Amino acid sequence: RNMSSAGPEGRKKMRECDGLIDSLVYYIQGAIADHEPNDKATENCVCILHNLSYQLETELPESYAQTIYVQRRNIPSNDKTPGCFGTRSRKVKEKHQDTPLPEEKSNPKGVESLWHSTLIRIYLSLIAKSTRNYTQEASLGALQNLTAGTGPMPFSVARTVVQKANGIPSIRTMLHVSHPAVKKTAVSLLRNLSRNTSLQNDIAREVLPDLVSVLPESVPGSDIACETTASICYTLYNLTQSNSHNARLLLSADGLPKIIAISMNDSNMFSKASRAASVLLYSLWSHTDLHNAYKK
Predict the structure, then answer these.
(1) Residues 159 and 267 in one domain
(2) What are the start and end residues of every segment in region (Disordered) (predicted)?
């Protein structure tokens, strides 16, 4: 577990180690089957897999990059890391959203297991069944890592989480836990998932009112809570930016007063949340059909 967080070279060596990833997955599957999702060894295994999934998209061996990321060659280098906003970055994202992955192998080996639907379902199962905070956070974090890029693999993983494995209800539960790091990671995962335009309606229907309910009444007083608040605002931005129905859903969940209050804090220390809330407000105002409702 310690070695898996040693950096790119350490991750590369461990991913290439014959049988290591397979053994970790095998152990966790056994723990879940035996109804033992809270033991320490399971936590260690999930944390290792979480670390090995970090930067996976950019660190994949060339053989996988050629089969999975053929289209990346056609993307200008300055567009490889699209921001939250901007028309060019949106085109890059949309270009990948419809790119199918090569057909999934029924018996993945080694590094292939890291993005396979079997492991995605294991993470979702642990999120639902484990009460151990580190196990929950590592499972959420692994899914966050796998959905963080802009290539076809992250969008395929996102589709599996939302549509094939029905993972949103389990993630939604994590928004209401008291542990700040678990909540922050759950929101970060939702933010990644919400970038996928084809999934936005499904996500909004399941979780938008919950996102509004966990927004604070004003800018929170800690760094981690402030980051979480900013991430919630950017997730809501993704869900409502081009969807008037979702913006109305936010309005009916009484989100507007909270967002206004967060945006009005001008303290430099917590400007990240205020800036995110301001961006969201600006986007909400672009739905001209809702102006009368906003004013009320």
Answers:
(1) no
(2) 79-109
> Could you tell me if residue 168 is inside a domain?
yes
Q: What pLDDT does residue 87 have?
A: 33
Chain length of the chain: 296
Q: Which residue has the higher pLDDT, 76 or 242?
A: 242
> Looking at the structure, do residues 130 and 216 belong to the same domain, yes or no?
no
Q: How confident is the model at residue 132 (pLDDT cuts 50, 70, 90)?
A: very high
pTM of the model: 0.86
Q: 160, 117 in Cβ contact below 8 A? A: yes
Question: What's residue 176's pLDDT?
Answer: 96
Q: Do residues 102 and 112 touch, judged by C-beta distance below 8 A?
A: no
Q: Which domain holds residue 3?
A: 1-64+108-177
Q: Is the dihedral of CA 235, 237, 241, 243 positive or negative?
A: positive
CA dist 216 to 8, 210, 229, 247, Å?
A: 37, 12, 7, 19
CA distances from 250 to 181, 233, 253, 255 (A): 25, 11, 5, 6
